Amino acid sequence: MTLLAFFVLLGVLITVHESGHFIVAKLAGVRVLTFSIGFGPKLFSFTRGETEYRLSILPLGGYVRMYGDDITEAVPDSEKHRAFLEKSTFKKMAIAAAGPAANLILPLVLFFAVSVGSEQVAEPVVGTVLAGEPAERAGVLPGDRIMAVDDTPITAFSDLIGAISARPATPTRLTVQRPGVTQPLLLTVTPTSTASPDPTASAPIGRIGMLVTHAVPVVTVASGSPAAVAGVVAGDRVVAVDGVAVASRDALLASLDAADPTRPLSLTVERSAAAGPARLDVVVPALAVPACAADAAPAAPVVVSEGAVPAVADVPAVPCEATPAAVDVVALRFAVLLEDVAHGPVQATVFATRQAVVDAVTRQARRRGLASVDGVVAAVEPDSPAGARGLVANEHRVVAVDGAPLGLVNELSSALSKDIDGIHTIGLVDGAGHGSTLTFLLQPSTRRELGGQKVLGVSLRSAQGDASVVSRDVAVGDAVVRAFRTTGDTIRSVAAGYVMLFTGRVGLDQLGGPVMLATIAGEAARSGIEVFVGTMALLSVNLALLNLLPVPVLDGGHLLLFTVEAVRRKRLSVEARLRATKVGLFFVGGLMVVALFNDVASFFR
Question: H/E element holding 280?
């Protein structure tokens, strides 16, 4: 699959690029001698008219050889009208620019093709309203259908996200159809201004705190807890508590909190198996003594010391036997000195995060070892702060970040992105129900596709229900607008990446060669046709902008030389052109060596 995807991807990009040169050269009256996909010895070829068409053995590029493009060869007067270098400056520049232009046209075609026709979209029905966010303050409720944002009709949740994102810190009117209410409601909401998740975007985006889905009651279980003893396992979906159905995470947690801790608890769970979900009835033993509320612990200063910080003796006493006598919150640090966390705002953040961990541990104990699966670590990047401090997938659960309890898993990345170079603290609960905090500095990712982006190095699980999906038609005009908009966004993103590379914000170790390209192609192909098409469009833009760099031997270098000749009103000498070509070959060869080195080095990481 990977090799096939690699050859298809590269074959299309090269063919489109060289076809641009070929077509414009023919229109300009230039004789095209060879059209080759690949370099080196030819695998096979055929001739049509005056052009030989080749497939060559090295599939990492291609070329169009035109009559009269060699500055060292003389062209008879009778043939000058068919020679490339004898054409006007405008025609030569058009031929040189045609390859990159074709690579910029390809994304337009691809994005149009995947947009036009029928598409499946999530309805603009609110699944979750986040506590404390603008949507909640405006009065939006789960189940509300958003009909319009200001005067713009909304037919899909993606339309809603786009409209809100474009209005940071701007009062916005929502037209809402609420179940059971005849007339639409008009609500005014002011989106918060937050950093874009796109690292190449500098403009903030708006957010109001709504999701199209709702959290489902899938649980994780502390080892040795009453729920674990009863046979509940991580990943079970609880569908009823004491015979009362629960459809959401919040309903489950509320039912667990309301249950009498001195009596056994009956749960009905669904467990996925090879043959499909199995429904089981489980009786969870009562707690040994009455449990108490998590907020019963009084706030008190905690002395920061080395090792287990704060130590057991530093934990404020909880006036209730049922809460663990001492919630030991172990403090871990990565790339942060002890004195960095011993005073000021960082100390306050550490204390608040620690208290959130104490609350989470206490709540899980009261709930007989059950907790939502949201926030459970799904994967850990080895060479990262999380990997270095021993976080384990499916073992640790993130419950707080920078002093605030974690409500949604994406709140982790949002909090970290607010201060890429600052000190952060997350709160963790492990598989045994023990708490810890990790204070750290973000570190550049070793994953080359992230381009040196600073990361913590974890991805988190989330259990969200399916959104309501409908089919809608996309007209030709709308598909054209989408294609241009998406292509424009792609060009801006790729251009920003090149700026980051040439300004040193991204290291040369992020350059990739054929191995990286094959990996990307294979992953995209396995993800589906839309992802593969999007990847092809992205790489096509990349190829276009790379070739437009003003480096001799690249198309942009040819455009530069032709421009210089136009200004001077005479051709450059053969010696000057040869020197320029050597400089270009040195630059391009150097990039290829770095990319190949990075490919080889990736096998040893």
Answer: strand 278-284
* Strands, sheet with 244-245, edge to edge from the N-terminal-most edge strand: 244-245, 237-241, 265-271, 278-284
Closest CA to 60 of 550, 596, 502, 448: 596
User: One of 18, 133, 395, 411 is an active-site residue; which one?
Assistant: 18
Q: How far is Cα 515 from Cα 562, in angstroms, rounded to an integer?
A: 35
In the DSSP assignment, the letter for residue 287 is: P
Q: How far apart are CA 563 and CA 89, in angstroms?
A: 8
pTM, rounded to two decimals = 0.69
3-state secondary structure of 58: strand
Is 339 among the catalytic positions?
no
How big is the chain, counted in residues? 605
Backbone phi, psi, residue 53, to 5°:
-105, 125
DSSP state of 108: H
Which residue carries 């600073």 as its tokens? Answer: 454
199-208, 454-463, 501-510: least confident range: 501-510
CA distance 108 to 540: 11
- For residues 364 and 445, is the Cβ–Cβ distance under 8 A? no
Q: What H or E segment, with its residue span, contains residue 365?
A: helix 344-366
Q: What H or E segment, with its residue span, contains residue 587?
A: helix 574-602
SS (H, E, C) 201-248: CCCCEEECCEECCCECCEEEECCCCHHHHHCCCCCCEEEEECCEECCC
Tokens of 74: 């003389």
Sorted by sequence, the CB contacts under 8 Å of residue 275 that are 6+ apart come out as: none
Are 146 and 122 in contact, with CB atoms under 8 Å apart? no
Cβ contact 467:213 at 8 Å? yes
Residue 327, classed as helix, strand or coil, is: coil
Q: Maximum Cα–Cα distance for the chain, whole Å?
A: 104
Q: How far is CA 249 from the centre of its chain?
A: 26
Question: In which region does residue 106 sit, left (phi positive, over 0), alpha (psi from -120 to 50) or beta (all else)?
Answer: alpha
Helix axes 2-27, 514-527, angle to 10 degrees: 110
- Which amino acid belongs to residue 576? A
Span between the terminal Cα atoms of the chain, in Å: 23
pLDDT at 509 (0 to 100): 67
Q: Tokens standing for 400? A: 């707080």
Q: What pLDDT is stored for residue 231 in this prediction?
A: 92
pLDDT for residue 171 is more than 60: yes
Exposed, middle or buried by CB within 10 Å (0-12, 13-18, 19+), for 271?
Answer: middle
Domains of the chain: 2-116+541-602 (no CATH), 121-211 (2.30.42.10), 219-284 (no CATH), 294-460 (2.30.42.10)
